[in-house]
Amino acid sequence: MAKDLKFSEYPFKVPSEKTIVAKCEKLVKDIIDSKDAKTCITAIKKWNKYSNTLNTQVSIIYVLYSLETDNKKYVKAQDKVNEISPVLSNYSNRIAKFITKVSFRAELEKKFGAYLFEMYDASLKAFDEKLIPDMIEENKLTSEYDQILGGAQIEFDGKVLNLSQLGKYMQDKDQEVRKSAAIAMDKWLGEHEEAIGNIYDKLVHLRDGMAKKLGFDNFVELGYLRLGRTDYNAKMVADYRAQIAKDVVPLCNKLYKEQMKNLGIKKPQYYDYNLMFKSGNPTPAGEEKYLIEKAYEMYSALGTESKEFFKFMMDHELLDLTARKGKTTGGYCTSFSDYKAPFIFSNFNGTSGDVNVLTHEGGHAFQYYLSRDIKIPEYVNPTLESCEIHSMSMEFFAWPYMEGFFGKDAEKYKYSHLCDAIEFLPYGITIDEFQHWVYENPNATHEERCAKFHEIESRYTPHKKYDFTPTLAKGTYWLRQSHVFGSPFYYIDYTLAQVCAFQFANENLKDHDKAWKKYVKLCKCGGKYPFLTLLEKNHIRNPFVDGTVKKAIAPLKKVLATFDSSKF
Length: 568
Known about the structure:
Layout: H1 17-32, H2 37-67, H3 72-101, H4 105-112, H5 114-126, H6 132-150, E1 154-156, E2 159-161, H7 163-167, H8 175-213, H9 219-226, H10 234-247, H11 249-263, H12 288-302, H13 304-315, E3 319-322, E4 332-336, E5 341-348, H14 353-371, H15 384-397, H16 402-406, H17 410-440, H18 446-460, H19 470-473, H20 482-486, H21 492-510, H22 512-525, H23 531-537, H24 548-561
Parallel strand pairs: 3-5
Antiparallel strand pairs: 1-2, 4-5
Helix pairs in contact: 1-2, 1-3, 2-3, 3-5, 3-6, 5-9, 6-8, 8-9, 10-17, 12-13, 12-14, 13-14, 14-15, 14-22, 15-21, 17-18, 17-21, 21-22, 21-24
């Protein structure tokens, strides 16, 4: 297959279940019929090649669907993928069952590495053929949620806006504009609260039922296994959350008070915290074309490999960045195995978040670019908390280039970016603690879930007030957090990675060349190791060890002190 196509030239092909089943049956039979390691290795390589092709087709469909959620052709194709994906999981499960119990497992481990078999062992605990109908329904419900958020049309400022576009107004210098935008969003959320809440209720009961079919008490352990977490558990995560509560929440409360003092706001509402400075938040010095040019300059300056990477992205149309009608919300990075190409999706709206995409999602894409030639597919990308180290660290490596992106607002951006990174941690543990409670109490009502979220939110982010937004005042902020619906327990990964990224930020300030070399080495590791082993091999302190969070934050307090935020 040609590897040098542009995205617009990629073939749009909806997989046929009949064809897939026939091909998979043949490939799986060849593996299971293997009498020795050599024959089995050859058969596995053929399976991997076909899996890459299927995954490429699925990724293309998902991107096209994300770009046009109102295109019936792509909606239909995504529906088909939702039905087929669990079927593919069943074939992977059959392969895992065979090669983990085969007499020549030791020879296979020598060839593919022991970690692959740890992943297989975990996946076997997390999947059974009897779950396929439930998994199809789970995918369908997640797509329904995406369509509601992606289809948002909110009348504001004489325009019809989606949620991403409305977000720009909630950062406006004028408090009345922020308030009006927040009220408009709250009204939209109130109109869709019941539908979104019902989708989530179905997902929770569905996942709880799946867990119980596999013999688990609830979905928590199954959720961890589905994320490939082989070296840490919910207890370790709870202890880690306690570190954030002790060492970060007080600092954030201090930063929020200072922010409101600078703004001169005595009774702030949640949307007031979206404005960092009285003179306005830092805004990019240009739109998409300009920002891509500056990103190329940055990646060119960082190193030869990063320059080649970003030129590849531009030349092959692997960036779709600006918000428009029909696009789903948020941003992500995915990849197309057969073309060895990453893809960045986002919704530029004229805020500093546009630059964050080019650094954050750019970090994901850069890691894939450096790992794409790893022969074993499971080792190309690491688990999610490891992936986020690449993205969040790149945000800090980008600091010296902010004048190009922001012009006179460069210093404002650095200060607000660091504050946002630190202040994200309490929100991240709010989402995580909420999800643990939900799946430990699956029969709770929507009202009880919202009340619990409000209680957790009040502990970790007590500054948030919702006096003029009655829907959010009930504790519904989580309804807009897509990870809660599509990727349960994923969200804590961002915070774990942030603590690791802070270590890169601190090292970068001391010795950029050394820190960058260490970062590139981390990216090239791909997913060859589980999270804690990956940290150890790359000399990154373990966030689960008590005191790590405090050590990562301490130097950043000194960096914050170098800014006089009252003058911005």
